[in-house]
Amino acid sequence: MQTEYFWIALAAILLLLDLWAMNSVLRSDKSSGTKAGWTALIFLLPLLGVVIWGVAGPRGVTKGPSSPEHSKG
């Protein structure tokens, strides 16, 4: 019974990592073909895809606020 909960928790963590990776890929400034390829890799090979993305994949855009009003600290 306890091992079932372990595998369910592991699957949930993997799902969250995959969703985070896909979100990061889709927010990147790469071409739509590159985004589609990375998304397909992460979707079709969840564990291996997220590991490969973690090493070599595109990251989300890290642009700052576009308005001076929002950049006040």
From TrEMBL:
Annotated Gene Ontology cellular component terms: plasma membrane
Key words of the record: Cell membrane, Membrane, Transmembrane, Transmembrane helix
Topology relative to the membrane: Multi-pass membrane protein
Domain Cardiolipin synthase N-terminal: 17-58
Keyword Cytoplasm set for record: no
Main location: membrane
Organism superkingdom: Bacteria
Transmembrane segments: 6-26, 38-56
Protein's cellular compartments: Cell membrane
This protein's name: PLDc N-terminal domain-containing protein
